[in-house]
Amino acid sequence: MLSASHIAELRAAVGEDGLITGRSQLQTYECDGLTNFRALPGAVVLPRSAAEVQAVVRVCARHKIPFVSRGAGTGLSGGALPAEGGVVISLARMNRILEVDIANRYVIVEPGVINAHVTQRVAPDGYFYAPDPSSQSVCTIGGNVAENSGGAHCLKYGFTVTHTLALDVVLPNGDLVTLGSRALDAPGYDLTGVFVGSEGTLGVATRITLRIVKQPEVVQTLLAAFHSPQAAGQTVSDIIAAGMLPSALEIMDTLSIEAAEAAVHAHYPMCGGLLLVELDGPSTEVEILMHEVRAISQKNGATEIRLAQSDEERMLVWKGRKAAFAAMGRISPNYIVQDGVIPRTALPRVLAEIAGMAADVNLRVANVFHAGDGNLHPLVLYDRAIEGQEEIALDLSYRILHLCVDNGGSITGEHGVGKEKQEALGYMFAEPDLATMQLVRCAFDPENIANPDKIFPRPRLCADRPGPYRPHPLETAGVAEIF
Amino acid sequence: MSASTALSLEEVRSHLASMVGDEHANLRGDGIHAAPANILQIAEVLRFAHKNDLSVAPAGGGTKAGWGNRVPARIRLSTKRLTSLIEHSWQDMTCTVEAGSTWATMQAELARHSQMVALDPLWPDRATVGGIAAVNDSGALRLKYGGLRDLILGMTLVLADGTIARTGGKVVKNVAGYDLHKLMTGSFGTLGVIAEVNFRLHPMEEHAGTWSATASDVAQFESPLRALLDSQIAPSCVQVRVKREKCAVDIRIAAVPHCLDEQADRLEKVFESFHLAVSTEEVWQARQELFDRDYAVILKVSLLPAEICSILSELQQQAVSDRLDIHAVAQANGLVTVAFGAATDEVIASVEYLRTRARNSGGSVVALQMPDELRGRLDVWNCDFNALPLMREIKRRFDTKQILNPGRFVGNI
Ligand SMILES: Cc1cc2nc3c(=O)[nH]c(=O)nc-3n(C[C@H](O)[C@H](O)[C@H](O)COP(=O)(O)OP(=O)(O)OC[C@H]3O[C@@H](n4cnc5c(N)ncnc54)[C@H](O)[C@@H]3O)c2cc1C
Fold first, then answer.
1. Which domain holds residue A441?
2. I need a labelling partner for B30 at 20 to 30 A (CA). Which of A380, B336, B357, B413 fits?
3. What single-letter DSSP state applies at residue B116?
4. Distance of alpha carbon B342 from its chain centroid, rounded?
5. Domain count of the fold of chain A
6. pTM for this predicted structure
7. Each residue of B256-294: pLDDT tens digit?
């Protein structure tokens, strides 16, 4: 797709050492964390500055070449999957922390900075960067911004969008714009809020201003073992109903515990449903509330309750939890990671249904989830070597997403729609909803070259005139159904 | 020739009356006030306005109608008949409410389960959910709970051409599709009419206390405030009230009862060189009082948190030397409301000075309120940033005929 002259223009933009065109090297960029989707790019560029990103994007804009931004490639929905024959813009070399302002509690970084490095940088001052995806030791802030990534502690602290104050973005026409500001409420549309979570389809973030948060005085982590994930789920509901906002509430089922144990020996109690509760804040408050959490756990039939006694023990508990996805490789040859959300109260019902659906097709589904915010990560285990099983597993994983939507939830809580869940987005949103989102897309990227063919169920062009009026299902259903 | 000249005002009224009912479409001045009963009627009204090139000003309680550039609108579309709390899933701590509900009505219903939307906007008794979202209002609670960007989970909107669209969802965590509700929040009714809002809820703060201290120069608060925000005290609100020759700081802390005492002790230490006294909840009305009094000019100023005291202290000095009547209420997050008693040349100079100071650290100054004679001399938004063409393009795509609040927003969007 890329001609020799396109390549020459790209070389002029980033220099010889910033350009990759050799086939074997290109293959490194064929996929992201969702490895069953692959496409070979025509070139990979590694810019060192926003100006170089601009130069690359201008080449793409001039020739209508699709480009895909890439951070660490850990995305789980195919967001960084290249456009076949197009350009991949790797932000790996833009990895400097540009400014740290403790008094005003912000940090300015380049997009290739690794998530965990932000906290490492401000920890000596008693601060941290709150969003903590399990992949935080490798994933980049640019990728986090694009996916609006979450993590276990988002229950209390919010998602990437909560912590993003401003962005410099290279638009798909090559212009560099600043969205938002270090100070709150910059006048104008909240385009920072729109860009975060747009999965690389609106441009390339080249400079990101992040909020940092004061470290809590104490952190306590409790493990409570239950007979079933449902009992653990009920405990979660009761904790929230008691008016508490723990910093994390995670549940793992038997399969996940087994896998995590095999991988990191976290010394989890073997049980049907393991609940992990983390409280942080002023020490007296944490003491008092932890007492309450114990009582609630006991009331719901906890068979074992254990408080991590040291920071090392706490870290080990989290290491096991964060390793849970990767650990599945130890108990199953292949697995699909899903990412649905349901209202917390639907947990027991939906978990039972998922178990039933899995049993119907003779597959196992492991569950590890951010229970506090109803974010499920069903892991569908299968064996690719068995003829037809991959298709059955994929079908099951999509049906689980539909189940989430049917229960008032969402098809993705943190991994994004990407390439994987485009059809499911069409299940969650009606045509007019998608067409309205498309207005934003077209304002940013009228030529549809920034990460094209992602998120939306089918390709769309940015016509200058709106199409014919489309009634929302709300309308066709009639007022009576709405109220 | 625009189609609107084809319809007389009375013809517009009677068309609208056929959609929303005769008693809900009234001629007022040179426009029509229309109050649709539900979202379908909103869509019908907008489709009609769009077809006939009639400008529309969406309206809730009308409390902030004067904010932004002045725009005449042929149709004032009121959400006052859309007032129900559609759903309160208290166990999931979420709710869906119609845009015309007043903030206080909604909160009263949520309070039945000791829950709230954790935001303290202006005039909760009159201001509506839709209007508050449209201007992205927030008060002192924002320090702890974040702003509407963090509290709104989804919306149902009606676009200028009558398209109904949903965005986001009802669950607290959701990254499916673009977050159009974030685009709508703070868009001053220029992109669509907000019909319903889904909120994330928090437990009400059952045990809380407020403490205050006073000083003559606000600069004196700089170091204790810095220490407070860098400490393990977790206040839900911190504000500084500034007048020409005196000022006060207020701190609200919510915690379980036993902890509250402990936190109060810590607070005492931070403010040991002041006389810190238990205060009343009423101090948290201070921002609203600025608007309720007869101040001529009111600004929304956004500063870096660490610069509040020094900049406000400069303002105090100016006020003394120029004999200005000023009053400011600053949140510790950097959002400051500044009010001036008169609209003199010194005040204009003072506003321009603030603008320069704010801009140097990424902040801004928006003139929310000013007398008519100042409009034209004092720019409301005073913004010139490189994302403006992109914002214009978004407006053009959403509202092809520019009928929604045309010209009210930044850059005359
Ligand atoms: C083991 C494992 C655990 C995980 N756990 C979590 C978790 O707990 N929570 C969670 O939310 N996610 C999790 N993820 C998913 C993934 O790590 C996140 O989505 C992460 O934010 C991706 O970052 P990245 O740098 O790898 O981005 P990539 O995968 O390289 O890219 C992701 C998307 O961002 C876009 N992008 C990248 N950089 C930019 C830029 N500068 N400007 C514009 N767009 C850009 C890409 O085009 C792509 O669409 C996990 C993944 C793995 C493998």
1. 429-457+465-483
2. B413
3. E
4. 24
5. 4
6. 0.97
7. 888 999 999 999 999 999 999 999 999 999 999 999 999
